[in-house]
Amino acid sequence: MNITDISFKATGFFSKTVADYLDETESLKPFYNRFPNLENFKDQIEEKSKSSNNSVEQRKRLVSVLEKQYQNIEASGETVKNIQSLLKENTFTITTGHQLNLFTGPLYFLYKIISAINLCEDLTVSYPEQNFVPVYWMASEDHDFDEINYFNFNQKKVQWNSEEIGGVGRFSTEGLEGVFKEFSKHLGNSRNAIHLKELFTEGYLNHNNLADATRYIANELFKDYGLVIIDADDALLKKELVPFVKKDLFEQISYKEVTKTIENLQNDYKIQVNPREINLFYLINGLRERIILKDDVYTVNNTKITFTKNEIETELQKYPERFSPNVIMRPLYQEVILPNLCYIGGGGELAYWFELKNYFDAVEVTFPILLLRNSVQVISEKQSGKLAKLNVSTEELFVKQHDLITKKVQEVSEIKVDFTKQKDVLQEQFNTLKEVAKKTDASFIGAVNAQERKQIKGLENLEKRLQRAEKRKQKELVEAITLVQNELLPNQSLEERQRNFSEYYLEYGEEFISILKNNLKPLDLNFTVLTL
């Protein structure tokens, strides 16, 4: 086994927002609280300890909900211990969240949770007076079923179809038996294949809804490390959100604050999400629709359900569970109900968290430290050998395929297919012509410019034709590079966004998770290339 770390920027798959965050660029600093390093957690612990939403009552409520949710789950001693420790005021959480993707969805599901587990261990060493609990927040209230109803296995789509609508955590698992039969055809009968089949069947065929099924699977994969899984679609937990829901319904505070932030953030960065006037959904079985205010009437979009101001306030007090935060308010909900220090997410997630700092300040909730999750590229020893033979370095693996092939063909070519010098000479000649034109007849400059473009374009076309000819000559090299890069970067994307964990579990079993757990360093802030 070999590990190589490269910068996230070097992969070319991460945004300017992420690159600037990791570089601690000044322009982004107003949009977050503290940068993720061990020293900054000291102040974060102190601030969270003093926050108003860190009371004994809230901790008791949180633990009682978790105990109820774990009633039918075989929790490890470590997980039970972590749940009970949440009653203590010196216990804090490190949280990551993820949708309820079928069979965990993309591979980075594992990396998110391992980042949270390993960060807790790092913090325990540095701050032994405190306890740290890794938490997986299930996005059970989401309603984008098309985003989660499949996973890829060996570049084939394994998909579940359902006619249900509403919060996906409440979806019945009916119909997944057919999905299992199709999936199991590709697994074989090895020991690891049998374990994958058991995990799928126990999860989806022996649990009635998607939230329970996902909890079971995540617990089976990570219970040895004390992971605590929370489903926030709960009436008791939603009671704590009531004051903030009121501010959103009656003052539109999230919209106002996030809009102000976006006005400043968009000067340098792409905006990830835009707020609505009300950032809440109305959630009941079979329905999750936006709440819209128009002419002093609160309407549930695409329904005939309406409320006056007094009626919606009464509804909120009686049924807080019916008010579901959207992407703008969900992070606030998390930080209100958990004694949380840090949120771990992907680049897109961090980008929308940056929009929320002023909103958190306005409602007086501590803004967490934001940490980019670990990212991994797994390479087999055989693939590593191929790359070495092709003289493709670890960083070059992530170069766009056309550019990589052009570079490698040029490296072995007997002729230099690069007309840079010729273009420079041509440019000098035309610069001289332009100077002559200015002194003789300025109207002549337009014709000179047109001829310049024509000549440069001609050289570029000749260069491309020579490159194509050289690639044909080096056909075996081109095919070999294309093949190995397509294996490692399916659809020319990071494999962690395309593959499911089951592909590696089938080969390595539980050891795959152990290897990741033992080698990923969440605070190193590097992209990891892992050769197995």
Structure description:
The protein is an alpha/beta fold. The protein has a domain at 2-239 and 328-373 and 511-531. The protein is 50% helix and 14% strand. It contains 24 helices and 15 strands. The chain has helices at 8-11, 16-22, 40-50, 56-69, 77-85, 108-126, 145-148, 176-184, 191-205, 210-222, 235-238, 242-251, 253-265, 309-318, 330-337, 347-353, 357-362, 381-389, 401-412, 420-440, 445-473, 475-488, 501-508, 510-519; strands spanning 2-6, 91-98, 131-138, 150-153, 156-159, 228-231, 280-284, 287-294, 297-300, 306-307, 323-325, 340-345, 369-372, 375-379, 527-531. Strands 6-3-2-12-13 form a five-stranded parallel beta sheet, with helices on both faces. A five-stranded antiparallel beta sheet has the order 10-9-8-7-11. A three-stranded mixed beta sheet has the order 1-15-14. A hairpin with a 2-residue loop joins strand 7 (280-284) and strand 8 (287-294). Helix 8 runs antiparallel to helix 9, helix 20 (420-440) packs antiparallel against helix 21 and helix 21 crosses helix 22. The longest helix is centred in the C-terminal third of the chain and has 29 residues, at 445-473. The N and C termini lie close together (5 Å). The model has no long low-confidence stretch (mean pLDDT 93).
